[in-house]
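Q: Please design a sequence for this.
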């Protein structure tokens, strides 16, 4: 009997965010539960230093003060290794941690690891998704299949609402 994997449709607003532990770009362990009493913007993106992902990361970087004003932390997650994250952070002066999900465990847990199609080539990867998590660890807002333009403003509005 085939077991059904948790997918993004099953994680919905109001659900408890699954706790996890990943290493950041410096090899430091980061747990979601480390941020209790804070709001968390957990965004999953396909790949470091690609056009859409760079635009998204730089937009979060440029608005980090507004996120701080909302008592929110930003955590980026991709399948990239720490060295790639370090280069990406350095190249674009990113001011928040990037977490390494090399085995896609957390991406699968959050249901964002999907079969994708690019130029008629099928492959598995991250579907750009953002989760806004409240101080109690509940999913306040879920943005699926994110379009980068205007996304940071949508996330800030969700934090305020």
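A: Design:
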């Amino acid at each position: 009997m085939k077991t059904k994997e948790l997918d993004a449709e099953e994680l919905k607003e109001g659900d408890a965010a699954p706790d996890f532990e990943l290493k950041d770009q410096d090899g430091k362990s980061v747990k979601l539960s480390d941020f209790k009493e804070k709001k968390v913007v957990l965004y999953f993106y396909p790949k470091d230093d690609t056009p859409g992902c760079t635009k998204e990361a730089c937009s979060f970087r440029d608005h980090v003060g507004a996120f701080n004003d909302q008592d929110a932390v930003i955590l980026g997650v991709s399948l990239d290794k720490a060295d790639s994250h370090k280069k990406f952070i350095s190249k674009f002066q990113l001011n928040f941690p990037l977490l390494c999900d090399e085995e896609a465990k957390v991406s699968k847990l959050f249901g964002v690891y999907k079969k994708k199609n690019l130029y008629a080539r099928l492959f598995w990867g991250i579907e750009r998704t953002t989760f806004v998590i409240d101080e109690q660890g509940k999913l306040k807002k879920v943005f699926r299949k994110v379009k980068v333009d205007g996304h940071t403003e949508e996330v800030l509005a969700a934090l305020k609402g």
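Q: Thanks. Anything notable?
A: Residues 21-160 form a domain with the Glutaredoxin fold (CATH 3.40.30.10). The beta strands are 21-24, 29-31, 39-44, 72-78, 98-100, 113-118, 121-126, 129-133, 139-143.
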